[in-house]
Amino acid sequence: MLEGKMPGKRSLNASAIPSAKRERKAITLDIKLEVLRRFEVGEKLSQIAKALGLAVSTVATIRDNKEKIKANSQIATPLRASRLTRHRSAVMETMERLLHVWLEDQSQRNVPLSVTVIQEKAKSLFDDLQRERGASSPTEKFTASKGWFVRFKERHCLPHFKINSTAPGNKDIYPEALRSIIEEGEYTPQQVFNVDETGLYWKRMPEGTFISVEEKAEPGFKSSRDRLMLLLGGNAAGDFKLKPLLVYHLENPKALKGYSKPNLPVIWRSNKKAWATRSIFQEWFTYFFCPAVERYCAQNNLTHKALLILDNAPCHPVNLSDLSDNVRVEYLHDSTADSIQPMGQGIASAFKAHYVRRTFEHILEATDGEDTATIREFWRNYSIMDAVDNIALAWEALRPATMNSVWKKIWPECVRFQSVSRTDDIAQLQQNIVSLAKDVAFEEVVEADVDQLLRSHEEDLSNKELMQLEQEESEDAPPALRQLSTGRLSAAFSHFEAGLQVLTSDGPDDAWKLKVSGAINDAINCYRELYNEEKRRSKQLS
User: Fold this and answer.
1) How far apart are CA 104 and CA 229, in angstroms?
2) Are 133 and 467 in contact (CB under 8 A)?
3) Beta-strand relationship, 306-310 and 267-270
4) Residue 50, CA atoms < 13 Å, CB-side half-sphere
5) Potential cystine with 387: which of 186, 202, 226, 437 (Cβ 3.0-4.6 Å)?
6) Quick check: helix, strand or coil at residue 264?
7) Residue 306 pairs with which residues in a beta bridge?
8) Contact of 280 with 247, CB cutoff 8 Å
């Protein structure tokens, strides 16, 4: 981390978070049993430590002495111990796991949530899971009560989600603050940037097309549910669009074999749920955004400095300004971010319309003429690499007038174009897509179908998609990991814990220790899940 910091850097809604030393706790039998119960329902080591106010190493020690603790508890208070270590139903555990995935997806898109909305989603998921498992007359009842929500919140550490968000305030507060920051830093429209994440179902056709109908008729269809995340952005002048960051759920899909990732028209990164994470975003900021700004300023004879405006999405680290002497980062207030953020004022929608249009053009080019593939053959072979090429062309198609006009709510003085370019008008693009669809032989496609397709990219994950996502993750688990025995995994965890104790013993404060231990434990969590799965399999076999 660089020590230098530009004077006057501040967050518009920053609040001091006092750090206090954790009080020393007596580790009673009840606490140890609670730790073990949380492990059994799938909670992470770092989550348990945070929820119970224990050191990560203490929680790990309790986990490693599981059998001894349970034996002692049965001798001491067998009835009470059996209550504390009881297993919840598989439907209940699966529901909470899928609900947590849904919450993370909402958080990725910076969607504020209320307790009532979460309770309704939980009840809906629970009912669908029971139907999925053929429980015609289920004996287990679930009402998603407030008591359940409190326990769920503790089990899954929910405070970082936007629950019970405040109502929108005065939309002019932030533009006024921005104006003073720009004047103070003497930034030009070429030096002020905004970026935002958006999802894209890269292989999805309008409802009603024979491709969409046939795919849904196939057992286990999933290609139209294959989603990726894109980070899109540019400067206020509209003359510089950043290279898109693409996050996919696979690091090395077959379609990319033989391609050099650094030479792709996107920055390729992976995450098992195709979500941006803080580490991915920080890497993008340090190794891609800052160098791109430096090159752009040099090419345009500008002072090497920039202002980056972000919303408060959980994947956006709060310390970005500390990583560069030349880039200042400011964060939008939660109450106004959605209504004034430039990239949220039609850029993502126009880009997706361009992507769909380019996809239909691609189909027409590949199937028009003699000795060409049929539409079904082309679409069956349409790969993520084809999507990457079309994403690049769609992003390139957005005109500077459009990129500049979306700043009118947050910085009206910099806007030279008062409306989007006609080539980026979504209504016009939808008409073009319908015409292309008819040329391709999708006679049934109308503008309403195209509009629904474009809106579907921003829809919540449905219960069916959440269940499908979990199923795909279990199917796609890397076989190489299966060769690791529980003994070898346990030995590896011991080494990690020993290393953590060395790293954190002389740390500056408790907050620093938690940050380091949390990051490392999150990184190896997939191995802990494998360990638990192997243990469960061993019990079943015995």
Assistant:
1) 14
2) no
3) unpaired
4) 22
5) 202
6) coil
7) 327
8) yes
